Sequence to fold (433 residues):
Amino acid sequence: LTGEQEHTTDRLARSGLTRRGVLAGAAMLGVGAGLDHVIAKAPQTTTVEAAQGSGSAEGVVAFYGAHQAGIATPAQDYLSFAAFDLSSETVEDLRSLLQEWTAAAAVLTAGRPYQQAPQEPSQPPGDTGEAIGLEPARLTITIGFGPSLFATPSGRDRFGLAHLKPPMLAPLPAFPGESLDPHSSGGDLCVQACANDPQVAFHATHQLARVASSVASLRWTQLGFGRTSSTSQAQVTPRNLMGFKDGTDNIHGEDTTAMNDHVWVAPHDSPSWMTGGAYLIARRIKILFDVWDTTSLEGQQRTIGRYKLTGAPLGANNEYDPVKLTATTPNGEPLIPANAHIRLANPQNNNGQRILRRGYSYSEPTEPGSGQIDAGLFFIAFQRNPQQQFIPLQHRLAANDALNHHTLHTSSAIFACPPGTTPNGFIGEGLFT
Ligand code: HEM
Fold:
């Protein structure tokens, strides 16, 4: 290294990154940020390396594995979601981008800067820097492919991948009552970054957007706070912005039977490159607080089908008491109303189908002059087959759910998240083999 580079690595070391980490990163990741160079393999010992970096190994979620992290992982507190459109039309650029995103994700989730050292002072910093010194914060980065990657709306197959498109990756149909903004819907690629520190989550999408900038541009982004689902037995059920416990009857990541039945794409599901992956549905759902906040407590509880304070199903005492859809009042009315959200969403009314909900609350600047809070649920759900899971479920909800008086779907997207990878591979590799 030159004296100047030594100086820079020393400063990075003082900011929480070890000199060894910088040099190792330099050696492993090669020099230069372009996508046209061969990308070296990402580090293998993420946990050990992270302990030497800015954070403790405790806050590290393993990046490599059969499945991508960020699906079965207990939901973290913050989300930074980004959808991208590819500007390049060559399959080599797509492949290089996925290789580089994988290398970056392995480093960032281990709690280290994606510093393709040595740093030239005359060049922009290799890592944007806002996470230096922060804990890994259980960062996960989950990558997905939109239907337009395989065929544009006009049917163009830009990358020669149309024959690999999963049948269940069709664009979502229109649902009654939605009011979608096309500019914050869809996308060729997505990155879901979740962490227990909002700046760590933001840094991940910022860094991946920068890495991609010569071949893909941001289409839309969404920040989320306050996870709205528990996705682990170890988690207390959080409350959504309507004040209700959300995620009581969710799939938990530890429930391998439910994960295999309802979330992970199975070997006999087609196409084979998706085995071990899952389909992500995102819906930004605005809560109409002017209506909701003036609804009686009883009305709110009948809308959801649960008590607000305890989360127990109507007619029961405790949060985890079974939902009895057949229970009636003394005068024969269903205790859980016919249009209650949990009745219509219940697996008993949906051919036994379940989804893994992993959404976040969001809040946007108030539209000038509206006087209204612009906030709600950034709904994210993972599943094995949206054609049999989200789509029929959402048709049922859109037709009758009492919640529709209080919500408006404003953004929508579907992505195929391929399986996880090893230190010798990259996310989405199955598309190219
Ligand atoms: C702003 C919109 C929404 C809000 C505020 C909301 C809120 C809730 C709440 C409070 C529960 C009960 C607690 C629980 O079991 O998690 C629940 C359950 C559920 N929701 Fe939603 N939800 C919304 C949208 C959706 C959408 C769009 C879907 C799927 C298309 C959905 C699917 C489900 C399912 C499957 C359950 C579990 C039902 C059961 O098994 O009992 N929700 N939701």
Remarks:
- Confidence is low (pLDDT under 50) at residues 1-56.
- DSSP finds ten helices and nine strands in the chain.
- The radius of gyration is 23 Å.
- The CA atoms of residues 29 and 234 lie 37 Å apart.
